[in-house]
């Protein structure tokens, strides 16, 4: 499978400088070619060919190969509400956190359910039809209780967002956050649709509900220390998984696409692994009442989460157990091309 080149900001800058130099040289060449051409066309062609080779040499190349798709990969058959025996403990521990948070994020704001033509119809009666043009951007790590509050708010508001995982010892997005915001503190939200960018979970939540709803913050997100403590219990139940970077990882060029919702224990274990491997992803929130549930149903013939799409390998799959294995095989410490330090030529391409 072919991969597009991965180019860092520094490499891009060098590339731009190299191309600019090449263009400048080409302009000089054009003048020289015309001057020589008046005396003899053959000499002009030779000068142009030599200069073209020099221009090619001026453009830098990159080397990091990135993720490799598993051989003979077969996506598993999705099985609704059928936990695997070896995943039972993880599922139960993940459920404790959801209970501690009283299922916050399970439904969207203004949730309504009705029976129409013999079918259950779930929707929001209050969220605006228009959605942000661009996904929001969240710098966080999975086990942080303050980050969980913000993720819950984003789920309630049915907002899609890019997650840039910043686990302890993270090398990709933690330094980037310090460069952007001035300190390594989480969560940090950027809204490319407005001018908002900031720390502090309560400030972020207030901004989100004022901008994308009627301004009323749900009680479950507005209880101060009670909210923080209950979010912390969710972290303790999972023994802080999703808080530290794995010793070696494979860095993808493009963000993965993750479909899920915050309280689901099946989804939580996937987010933990994505964080530990520093894998950026677009979070497609699917709380009850989200229109994206119907979108998945229309596109795939069923609704089930978690669901993961990987544009780096062209693969997609359901089932948390097999998603975890896929992430281990492609991005984990024992995966092909795994490295212990961030290569200099790795960058992120969203489109």
Describe the structure.
It is built from 10 helices and 10 strands. About 40% of the residues lie in helices and about 15% in strands. It folds into 2 domains: about 10-60; about 85-330, Glutaredoxin (3-Layer(aba) Sandwich). It has helices spanning about 10-35, 40-60, 90-100, 145-155, 175-180, 200-210, 225-235, 265-275, 290-300, 320-330, and strands spanning about 110-115, 120-125, 135-140, 160-165, 190, 195-200, 255-260, 280-285, 305-310, 315-320. The chain is globular and about 50 Å long. The longest helix has 29 residues, at about 10-35. This is GST N-terminal domain-containing protein. Pfam families: GST_N_3.
Low-confidence stretches: 1-62
CATH architecture of the largest domain: 3-Layer(aba) Sandwich
SSE series:
HHHEEEHEHEEHHEHEHEEH
Mean pLDDT: 84
What is the first-to-last residue Cα distance? 19 Å
Lateral strand order in the biggest sheet: 6-5-3-4-8-7-9-10
The CATH topology of the largest domain is given as: Glutaredoxin
What is the count of β-strands?
10
Helix content: 25-40%
Structural classification: alpha+beta
